[in-house]
Structures are given as structure tokens and as C-alpha cells.
Design goal:
heterodimer, A: 369 residues, alpha/beta, Rossmann fold, 8 strands, B: 325 residues, 13 helices, AAA+_ATPase (chain A), ATP binding (chain A)
Chain lengths: 369, 325
Amino acid sequence: MNLDGMLRDKRVIVLCGAGGVGKTTTAAALGVAAARAGRHVLVLTIDPARRLAEAMGLKENGPEPTTVPLERLYADGPVGEGRLDVWMLEPRIVFERMVRKLSATESAARAILDHRLYRFLSELVAGVQEYAAAEALDGFLAEGHYDLILLDTPPSRHALDFLEAPGRLARFLDERVVSLFGPDSGRTGRLWQGAQALVGKVLDGIFGGGFAQEMRTFVGAFGGLFAGIRLHTERLREHLTSKDAAFLLVTSPEAAAMREATFFRDALQARGLPFAGYVLNRSWAREDGLAPAANLKPHANNSTDTDAVLALEHLAGVEDARAKAHRSLLDRLAEGLPLGALAIAAPDAGADLEDFRGLVHLGDALTVA
Amino acid sequence: MARADGGVVLDSLWNRRAVLVSGKGGVGKTTLSAAMAVAAARSGRPVLLAELSPDEGGPSTLAALVGAKEAGAKVVPVRPNLSFVRLAASEGHRQFLEETLPVKWLADAALRSRALRRFLEAGPALKEMGLLYQMLTLVRRAHPDGRPMYPLAVVDLPATGHALALATLPRSVLSLMPGGPIGRAVREGLDLLQDPTRTGVVLTSLPEPLPVSETLSMARELKDVGLPLSAVLLNRLPEDPFTPESRAALDRLLETHGPHRGQRALERLERAREARKRLAEDTSVPQWGLPELALTGMALVERLAELLLPTLEEAAHAGGREATP
């Protein structure tokens, strides 16, 4: 399968990779290509960088996905069937919605949302952002409004944790921590009360008076959501392990980025997620088909010109060596790919990706490869 | 290129207690941290190279780059004047509990509580607090005669969450648990971090538009949280074979005869030039450049350290504080 086919057939494509390799841009360009091919597409990004929004002409983070104007999407021809929405995921909004949805009553939801510690949830609990991404993706998939969703993950080794974030949330609020801060159990044994008093003393010593009590009410209020959270994650996991899903690893030629790609490939395998291939960004692996620099020699009129051509020849030599190295890198990536997976090089777009046309070109270049 | 260009004196930077190396993933931050520590050690300063890694359990690239045999929460000597440590939140928590709780048995009880340990591990702010605390403890550690044991710590910060997470930590911790001893500890850490005579932040970057945009926005954020930016270190500068005259001649030739091979390298050179210009215009700190080298791993670290060294020796000789590029 090529990337074009993938964009036509899949329902969800997740892009993973190190920071700075162009994941967000790749997600956007693929979204543009899929929409222009007639699908109803959502690009979901949790990368806090605002560049994608700028390229798409979106001003601010909104509570809902924003539709890319049709005159922009189809600037160079007749308007087609496809539509493109983009959303810069806002964990706070997603989380608040989730709390409301999963709480039994409005007052139960309020008990969490109005709690002083709720504001610090992301500082207190690792994985909140990742979990918000999972929750949002699950919501959009369940809703069925889009043909294809492209998810751009954060540039961290924890990117795939979004599938396990409920596990991490649960670990934070696991029995032991709950027992530390949990609401009064009504137990009255002397020994138990003595132990509780000791725990209270230690906690007040460490965190300052009052904090432990606050934690206690918060943990108590939050604990009720877990059954619902688990259900959503299981549903999402089913979606993401199905053949409707594909995980693309985005990398640049740098050693560190390649190491991350290998790490992610192993992580996908370990989780039973469908690895669909590599996109090699920022590389010179593609031929540019230009004439040799030496062809300029006959046009040199003086010694400065000759120096200039010699210097260009030198640069061309450096460029060739680099291009060759990048091509062998691409070959290495292509080796041992599972059936149907691909390894493609994106053209080096350099600084051209500042506007929407750049995304259109990149999308076209990726899908004809 | 014979040496790190820019000719900027590192001397004043080496006289700080902590040099925090930050930057986005993929710019070579870890290699540059190693090279800076090796250069400072070679110039005769006792250096502690510290890693602040989000994955405390995984293999350490930084340890491998300087040839450290172990990567753990215990400081290990690597070579003359160079030690290595991987800061660990759990170690910081331990030290914190021992110093905070009034009696030893209470600290022991707290440390034995798996629930408490888990709670301290689970929250990012609490985790970073542990890392900061261990760093603080190491910076404070002194010989019996009062001389600091580690006068210079070079700290490789994680690519995500970078220096800012450390600097905003006190704020979040203080609003989370105002008044507690944790608040006091992080405030002390913040005093160290925000003191420009004791701390310097070095931002690593690449001479390309996006990395430079990110560096500039990081520089602004550092300013907002009061962390002192000392220098920008540009890695992998492409070689420039042109004189201004030959470059102008080439532009004329290409305009008449169209693009030829070498075009991509030429564009890259142009982007690098533009990147350096933008950095110089938008920041007031020195900019150092290191050339792109066909080396990897330890060999690359040693070579980069060599390139950084002459500026150091020059500085010692001239006794100067700062030079301009």
C-alpha cells in the first residue's frame, strides 16, 4: 500500500516521532492531501506549537475543530467533496467534558471541577495531557463524524502513553495512595486511628498543614470516574489495534531522531499496534534532477567567476555525499518492513512551509511517492 | 574552522555554579553538554556533568558520550576533573525527607511508606522537585575546608519540559502547597537558578529557521521566568566556501543559467546565514558556532571540546571577560 491508499482507506492515522522532525507539518500535509482527495478529515494535534494553526490560517485555539476555508483548500481548482477540520487539542476542555460526562450527577462533577486541587491536576498527575488526547480521539471516533482522523502526538517517549494514561491515572490514585489520602473509612480501631494520626503527622510535616486534608476530599471525588475512564480506553484500544488504524513514524536523518523511531517501532510492536511505515523528513534522499555544477564552467568570464563555480562544485560534492547518506538511510528503513508498510522520503521543504500552499505541495509530493 | 567561532570567552560561564544546557530534541544538545563539560574539565576545572532525564531507568546517552561506566544517582568519577551523575527524583525525595522531618524515625517511616513514595513519584511537580533538590544538595556539598566539592555543574536538561519546568516549578508547588517545607526547598532552588552570578543557561540550536524560532521563543520564556540566558550555541554550521565576491558572482551566473547541483547546499547555507542574523538581532547574548563534523559519539565530543578549548585558554591568558563575535 502507498500513502495515497492509506489516506483513502484508514479511519485513523497516528504520527509518532522525536521533537523537531516535522510531525505536525506531516500530519497537516497528509490531512490536506486526504481532504483534497475527497475525504472528510480531522487533524488533531497536541503539540503546543502554533505553527500548524498559522499555516492553516487558524487564529486561536477554539473549543471545537475549525474548518479550513474551502477557498484555501481548493485555491488552485474547483471545490471538491472533501473537507478539512483542524483542532489544537485543549486538554482542559477535553478533561472538563469528560468529568461532566462520566460523573453520575451534576453536583458530583462540580465537586471535582470546583475543587482547588483540580486546577493543579496536570501538575499533580503525570499523563493528563496524554489522557486528554486519548479521550478526544475516542470521542471523535465514537461520534463517526469524520472519515479520517490524523493524530499528531507530543514529541516525547511518553507519546504512546496515551493508551495507558488511565493506567497511570489509576496508579496515582491506586489503593495505596487512596489509603494515604482516601476518605475516612469509618474504621474506628485504636490501631487504625493511631496509624492514621501518624500518617497525618508525616504528611503535614512534608506538605504543610491542610494539604493532606485537601488531597483527601479530592481523591474521594475523583475515584468515582474510573470505571468510565477504563471503558473509553478499551474502546479506543480496539479502534487503534484494528485494520482501520495506522501508525506512521516520522523521523529526520539525525541519529537521535532515528533512535527515537526505532524506540517507537518497538513500542508499537510491544503494544500490538499496527505499524504502517516511516516518513523520512528533512532529507535530501530525493533526486533534484539538476545539471552538474561543472556545467557552469564555460560561462565563467573571470577568476572570480571561476572561484564561484569551484566553490559551488565543492558544495555540490558535499550535497552529493549527504544525499547518498540519506538514501542509504532510507534503504535501511525500508529493510525488514512488515508487509504493506512503507518508507518514504519527504522532499526537503526548507523554509517553504510557512503557508498553506506549502502544505498542499508537500501533501502531493508525499502521496505520489 | 580551527576553533569554535564567535571568539566568545567562556570564562565567565565556567565560573558559575550551574550551567543548564537546554534545547529541543534533535539539535545535538546532549553531545554539546558533554563537549562543554569535557572542555571545562580539560581546562582544569572540576566539573560535575549531571543528567536530568525523564527516563531514569533507561540507558544514558550522556554517560556513554563521556565514557562514564555507571549512570545512577551516585556521583561517579569519569576522568581527572570530571564526574558524572544522573539526577534522580527518588534520591532527592530521600534527602528532602531526611532533612525535613524533625526526627529520624519519622523520616524512616515516611521512606518506608510505599504509598507516599508512589505519590511523590506520580506527580510531575513532585518529581521535578526531587530532581531540583538533589541538584541543590550536590551544589551545596563541600569539602571539610569549605571549598565546594563540585564548583561547576553542567546540567543536561531534558528536551521536553526543558529549563522552564524547573523554573515554573516553585510557582506551581507554592500555589499547590503554600507554607510547607517543600515550598521552602524549591524557593531555595529557585534562588540559585535565578541568580545570574551562579547560574547560566545555554540554549543549543541548529542554524535552520524552525530551531531558531524555537530558540527565540525559549529565550523569551526564560526571561519571563527570570532564568539568566548566557549564550546560544549553534551546532552543525555548514561550511561556507565563498568570499562575498565569489558569492555575488555565483548569484549572477545562476540567475542567467538557472539552478545547478549544489542548490540545496546553497539554500542551506543561506538559511544558516539568515538564522545567525535573526539570533543576533533578537538576543543580546553571545552566539557560538560549531562546525558540522563527520564524527559521532565520543570522538565527536572530544573534537567539539577541542574546538571550545582555545577560547578558554585565550580567556585565561588575556584575563578578559567577554569578546564579541
